[in-house]
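Sample entry (137 residues):
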Amino acid sequence: MAASALAALYLRNGFLTSHLTALTLIYFFGGLLTWPIVVPIAKRYAGHRPPTARFAAFFLALSIGTAAMTAFLFAMDYRWFYARWHAPFGSLIWIFQFLFTGASAVYQFAVLGFALFLPFGLLCLIAASAYLVRHRR
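Predicted structure, serialized as tokens:
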């Protein structure tokens, strides 16, 4: 996913961003942390179904899981940046600030960041799903 984000950033604006390292790491860890969580769950639901059903299960699980994990990491990066202006930890105001900062970060990721998965992330998703269908254990 990091390679997909880098390729999309290069094609979009030739790496003209001051956050290239942070974006690369967020997309890298979004894909990396999703794999060990989502693949066993998808294998369990795919079971001994036909190959098309297994492909659909892996495709759906990996796409939703990767987007969700990357959005979560994006939201935690936002939270880390804005934490210096937020109320003390555990207070009611802090809870509202945490929730609304996270929600706005996820919204911004959905609008701006999701496009960095395309088109190369989609190709990797198809390849990974096909690989998992063929090499299930």
